[in-house]
Amino acid sequence: MRGRTPLLGLLALLLLGVLAPLPARAASGVLRTPECQGDWLPATPTSPDIMNGKLSFLDLPAVSIGKQVDWRMDPYKNRSWEMMFQSLRWVGRLVADYESTGRDDYLSRATELARDWVARNPPGGRTTSPYAWSEHPIALRAPALVCLSRHVPDRWLKDSLAVHAKMLSDPRHYDAGHNHGLDQDIGLLRIGCRYRQKSWQRLALTRMARSAKLDIDSEGSLREQAPRYALYVYDRLRVAVDTIGDCGLPVPADLATRWKRLPEHISAATQPNGYLVPIGDGPANVQPAGFAHADATVQVFKAGYVFGRTAWGDPQSAYYSIRFGPGQKFHGHEDHLGVTYYAQGRSILTEAGFVSYEGTPYRRWTQSPEAHNVPIVAGAKLRPRTATALTHRSIGEDRQSFTLTDRAYGVRRSRSVLVNHHDDVMAVLDTAERPMRDLWHLDPALTVVSSGKGKVVVANGSWRASLVQLSLPSCRPAGGQKIVRGRTSPYQGWVSPAYLQRVPASVVVSPTAKALLTIVVPGTDDPRVTCSGHTVIVHAPGGPVTLRTTSSGGLA
Q1: Beta bridge partner(s), residue 49
Q2: Which pLDDT tens digit goes with each residue over 59-81?
Q3: In what residue span(s) does the Heparinase II/III-like C-terminal domain sit (predicted)?
């Protein structure tokens, strides 16, 4: 027949990839569409929850929305909860499950909810939620409404998607080089492909490629300064690549390359226990899937990270992180010169972590230097967003050392970090032009069992570790450490192990000095430390570890 491709020819074209395969039908007989399927939808709330009028986000108690939804509700005064509510992705969950089950009541309720939202939330309207048309809810809502449009051809929905596309196209609201920008591009591309608007497709794809180059450097490091967001961006780029494929468009080569490099950065930031190191806006309970990793056990990223470990695939491996690089931005904290340390199957030195985005005094403290393992210059004011230089590195198989310097407090401060493997020891030498003090945040699982004469001993069950501090150049014990735990005025001695959680954790506050050597020795409560000139010998459980302090303030 004229205008039809013969069946054998059509099959051949499908096999060659010239034509995209036709959408499959579920057992219910309903068309399963690429716009509604995939892993872009949240797992909670479930469709039965929504049909019962119960919404649960962020593991917070479910909220009853009733038949007539109050679109201005914000029950927890929580920006993330409100964003998820206004995104309507939970409405998209109903449509996706309609495709799988054929339940017409799912589609009817999704249509009812979306139509009510559109009617009561016009841009700038009197009844409109203040957060409804913020850039991120718009970006996340667009794919949900596109999904619905595959089953509801009504004019009100098409018109609303046109408004969404206009908003997403507006450069004044676009977040280039940021995960929000990626979500905006996905939303615009979905709308452009759904209605065959080439200009929207081209804009979304061009911006997506350019933004990925700004957000992910050539080494695969995310520039948003929080490893947790590298995981988010990786997952969202997978959605972006799927969306590009659904549209029948080629994936930009540079975007694909940078996406594929992210896993090595994520793996490097993953501790031996399988959880991401809690740097920046990232809690300690984020556990990535097993990503490919580099062969090297020590990796230095120009974006401002050193990640090192004894070995891959060993839960008992020692592990450390060091922060330097560009000044604080996006999801980063004022954590430059900060270190973390994990050894013998335990986290020892950690960070305060991430609690939420609300601008509370506690949230502001978690972003401050006081919530990190850093030297703080006494009586000096922090200069926010100061860059830190990595001025020296020496990477051997069993020992590495690094030196970092900046002027974050208006005077030069320097930190030299030496990590010895197998006979586990971490040594940190801090110097400054004015007296400074160190803060050492201990993992909440550790209990301080003794403190005095420059030595703090911590325990986890029968296991022990010691933190020894020496004044330089005398190399005498630096006594006078204070242990702070669970203080609220001002905040100190807390860790947020998960979103919206905080638990007391001990912090060692050092005495002030212009030069201070801190030595962490896992596995013992009695490490002998001896000095002779610039030579320091640490008698670790596995044997003596020798290090040298240099006249320039380094460790070797």
Answers
A1: none
A2: 899 999 989 999 999 999 999 99
A3: 327-500
Residues 141 and 67: beta-carbon distance below 8 Å? no
Give the orientation angle of helix 155-169 with respect to helix 135-149, to 10 degrees: 150
Q: How far apart are CA 471 and CA 512, in angstroms?
A: 10
The closest alpha carbon to 244, from 205, 294, 283, belongs to 205
Q: What one-letter code names the amino acid at 18?
A: V
Q: Which tokens hold the place of 278?
A: 């809690």
Residue 381 amino acid letter: K
**Contact at 8 Å (CB) between 442 and 350?**
yes
The two tokens of residue 331 are 């999801």
Burial zone of 155 (CB within 10 Å; 0-12 exposed, 13-18 middle, 19+ buried)? exposed
Rounded Cα–Cα distance for residues 555 and 402 (Å): 8
Q: Are 319 and 308 in contact (CB under 8 A)?
A: yes
Question: How far apart, in Å, are the Cα atoms of 412 and each of 97, 238, 332, 554?
Answer: 59, 43, 22, 14
For residue 165, give every residue at least 6 positions away whose Cβ sits within 8 Å of its Cβ, in sequence order, or none.
Answer: 142, 188, 191, 192, 197, 200
* Helix, strand, or coil (residue 89): helix
What burial class does residue 69 get, using C-beta atoms within 10 Å of its C-beta: 0-12 exposed, 13-18 middle, 19+ buried?
middle
Q: CB within 8 A of 340, min separation 6: which ones?
A: 277, 278, 279, 319, 320, 321, 347, 349, 350, 351, 373
Quick one: pLDDT at residue 30?
84
* Predicted confidence band of residue 40 (pLDDT cuts 50, 70, 90): confident
At residue 150, φ and ψ (nearest 5 deg) are -70, -15
Name the burial class of residue 197, with classes exposed (0-12), middle (13-18) and buried (19+) by CB atoms within 10 angstroms of its CB: middle
Instruction: Give the C-alpha distances (Å, rounded to integers) separating 548 from 338, 401, 506, 530, 542.
Output: 21, 11, 30, 12, 19
Q: What is the pLDDT of residues 387-446, one digit of tens each?
A: 999 999 999 999 999 999 999 999 999 999 999 998 999 999 999 999 999 999 999 999
Q: Which DSSP letter does residue 143 get?
A: H
Task: Give the chain's count of helices (H) and strands (E).
Answer: 12, 26
Model confidence at 278: pLDDT above 70: yes
Alpha-carbon distances of 323 from 262, 374, 392, rounded to whole Å: 18, 10, 14
Q: Where are the alpha helices (DSSP H) in 359-399?
A: 361-367
